Amino acid sequence: MNIHTKAVHSGDRKRTGAYVPVTTPIHTATSFFYETAEQLDRVFGDVEKGYCYARYDNPSTGALEELICALEGGDAALACASGMAALHTAILSALTDRRRSIVAADALYGATVGLLMNVFEPSGASVRFADICDLGALRAAVAEARPGCIVMESISNPLLRVGEIDAVAAIANDAGAALVVDNTFATPLLVRPLELGAHFSVHSVTKYLAGHGDVLGGAVVTNSAHAESLRFLGRTIGPVLGPFESYLTMRGIKTFPLRMERQCANACRVAAWLAGHPRVARVYFTGDPRHPDAAAIRRLFPPNLYGAMISFEIKGAGREEVFRFMDALEMIVRATSLGDVHSMVLYPAMSSHRSLSPKHRARMGIGDNLVRLSVGIEAPEDIVADLEKALA
Ligand SMILES: *Cc1c(COP(=O)(O)O)cnc(C)c1O
Question: CA-based, 20 to 30 A from 170: which of 27, 130, 225, 287?
């Protein structure tokens, strides 16, 4: 089934007595009971399918998990209270029965670097960073660190590099490591990491999947080999998503492929316009044929869908000029998130990469003149017009 169809139909339609609701209701109950204690015992014992306690399972969240699993082509999913909770749980599951050593892409979401350095490393896992787009360097790092887990993003933040997930998965498999891919930026419309050999695909559903700036949530999708460990961690640590958020996320996902297509098309137009602007020094965009990973993008992503994130440098600008530009925007929202229906700008030096020194940021290629733009579903000419006024 096509992803547009799955987004609308998967996960829902459970019989409740005599009727079938067209969408999954919000089940607020924390516990569930049956005709007999005998039956409840069977549900507790996993002999009979059913619900007993909301930390274990909830019908609203279960429907969402089924839906995300279908979109990503996985065998099992866990919906979490945030993208960070999902990443934490995925890495814990990846390291179950594996060496407590992690090789991570050197370009990652800021909080993910924090999770690795300030949570996993103090708990005894070694962490090493490598350029995920340089397979030779990655192989060398893996040979040395012998990781149990490799962590990467399908499109990196904020410079939008694209690693070859299938090649990285092969390196992971050779080393006996599990590959965890944060697929938040690319979404399953562009790439489904599990189909390329990754062991975990992780989302901040806060972004494109929910898409309306009104839900904080995350999800882990995995293969059958890790399904039991993921379920165990979900039940034991309890990072689970609540029924209201599950409902909103499911509602959002119904239009996610439609929104994402529009956002990708808008991004192509906006990126082309920015590239021709005299005040713009450089544009980072996955649809640019001169992108350093253009070959991987052509091979892994569908035609004409490149993602809807753009980063760009304003000529000769520092913090002050960038702030003046941001303040001059009338429609595009100055806020730290992405993937919403509305366009948003963010200054990485202020937010996602704030904790790094200017020197460290410069080494990563994040200059003080770099702006990140999440392109929304508005009419593209209105996005361009807002940028044009603010850049004047
Ligand atoms: C936002 C984001 C996260 C964290 O997700 P939360 O829902 O904010 O916890 C992780 N990875 C990427 C790529 C993100 O954009």
Answer: 287
The pLDDT of residue 204 is above 90: yes
- DSSP conformation class of 302: P
Q: Which helix (H) or strand (E) holds 183?
A: none
Q: In the chain, which residues fall in CATH 3.90.1150.10? A: 257-391
CA 271 to chain centroid = 22
Residue spans in the chain of domains classed CATH 3.40.640.10: 3-253
Q: Is the pLDDT of residue 17 over 80?
A: no
- 354 has which bridge partners? none
Q: What is the DSSP letter of 36?
A: S
Residue 188: partners with Cβ closer than 8 Å, 6 or more residues away: 3, 71, 72, 73, 201
| This prediction's pTM | 0.96
Q: Which CATH architecture has domain 3-253?
A: 3-Layer(aba) Sandwich (3.40)
- Looking from the CA of residue 216, the nearest atom of ligand 1 is 7
Q: How far apart are CA 113 and CA 80, in angstroms?
A: 19
Ligand 1 centre from 84 Cα, in Å? Answer: 6
Bond from prior residue into 239 cis (ω within 30 degrees of 0) = no
Residues counted in the chain: 392
DSSP notation for 337-378 = --SSSS-EEE-TTTTTTTTS-HHHHHHTT--TTEEEEE--SS
| pLDDT recorded at residue 18 | 85
For residues 319-328, b (16+ Cβ closer than 10 Å) or e, as one string? eeebeebbee
pLDDT at 365: 87
**Closest C-alpha to 309, from 230, 379, 368, 376:** 376
CATH topology of domain 257-391: Aspartate Aminotransferase, domain 1 (3.90.1150)
